[in-house]
Amino acid sequence: MRVRNCGQDRAVVIAGGGPTGMMLAGELALAGVDVAVVERRKDRQVIGQRAGGLHCRTIEVLDQRGIADRFLAAGQAMQVAGFAQIRLDISDFPTPHPYGLALWQNDIERLLADWVEELAVPVHRATDVTGLVQDEGGVDVELSDGRALRAQYLVGCDGGRSRVRKAAGIDFPGWDPTTSYLLAQVELRDEPPWGIHRDAIGIHGLDRQNDGEPVRVMVTERQLGPSTEPTLDDLSEALKAVYGTDFGIHCPTSISRFTDMTRQAAAYRNRRVLLAGDAAHVHHPAGGQGLNTGVQDAVNLGWKLAEVVNGYAPETLLDTYHTERHPVAAGVLHTTMAQIALLRTDDRTKALHDNVSDLLSMDQPRKLYAARMSGLDIHYDLGDGHPLLGRRMPDLELVIGTGPVRMFTLLHDARPVLVTFGDLDHADAAGWADRLTLVAARYDGNWELPVMGAVSAPNAVLIRPDGYVAWVGHGSADGLRDALTSWFGPPSLANPTAR
């Protein structure tokens, strides 16, 4: 049964205004796509602690859009990469941001929402997606207030209980929860033992970053908690089971429950409906990769969806979103489950944890796992060739004309970039000049990748809007036209203007 359309057609509707949804909205707006966000919360309501920071690759992604400084000013740069609470130093990695950022999700969402507002993206708050109907031309999106929006595409960024995923009939296989945790921000009457505490029940912690702020509490529940919203009484009972007292908790700012449930969508796309972030994958927050994976989902999907909506590329380009991002999230789930196994508090697991800690203190294992946890090791399978192919483009300081230009600044507009070095010209890219930034540059330094180290200097690189290398030239332009056509559609009649 078709729903009543309220006359507000959009190219793309995004369900969910969290970090993933807002990042995707910004990506689409930069590409000139008519996009709107539907968000169930009203007035950017406080959501509790949830994610607590950004990993290196996510900071790089924000830097590629020219907004990283906003986040760096609001948070605290520090070494946040870790595996099963074993810290992994990335200060020697070849990146402009060899660190992570301690910053609560509330602040991350606020800064992304400010950016999206600057890009004039409409956000329908206090509204939820309740259903959808697809046809060959688009999607009718049912809203909780009785209205409907018509969109060419709908993207579900609406969390682990995604209504969009369920309405699209996409399976969500995985592992059921075995344990649950309460997270809260509360006031305490009594002084608690600060810091991390481990016992037979699990891992717990109490922390207050600044005087006058609420105390942040994490406590493992003795038994798996229900799926209902937790109460202050639930938190009191869990604290008493661990500490023998609840420290006089009162005035909660937020209380939430999370588990070690691990699931991933069987498909990230069903015709005109796509999934990103927690709607596509959920897992325990060990390692802090959930929010980061979602934001990077958005950056991978955004330019591809824009290419299709703007009529440059065929709809089949959207299939590469699942092909590239599903294995990345599968790896995150695999790594997260391994961490949870290592965080058990029995003596045998503690011994195993100590041995893994010793192993990760060695240079090569440390680099391998640090790159994995910080997102710097992502490698999309784009075929054989130069080591750069399918990997993030380093933020080189190029010389263009007579002045230095950082590589990441060339990606601020979310357009693909072709950079040539030496004698290789732009002739083969002439037909894509209307959608491609063409740059003739010089770079005299070393080319380095995390873990891999030095790589040979190419004559040219084609960089996708998400910062990953789609083609590498070795003295000729062989394969460039094929790469341009594959990723950005057939050529037009526009003439190039090299910078």
UniProtKB/TrEMBL annotation:
Keyword Flavoprotein: yes
Signal peptide range: none
Keywords: FAD, Flavoprotein
Domain of life: Bacteria
UniProt cross-references to InterPro entries, sorted A to Z: FAD-bd, FAD/NAD-bd_sf, RIFMO-like
GO terms for MF: FAD binding; oxidoreductase activity, acting on paired donors, with incorporation or reduction of molecular oxygen, NAD(P)H as one donor, and incorporation of one atom of oxygen
Reported cofactor(s): FAD
Domain FAD-binding: 11-334
Keyword check for tRNA processing: no
Protein name from the UniProt record: FAD-binding domain-containing protein
Lineage: Bacteria, Bacillati, Actinomycetota, Actinomycetes, Mycobacteriales
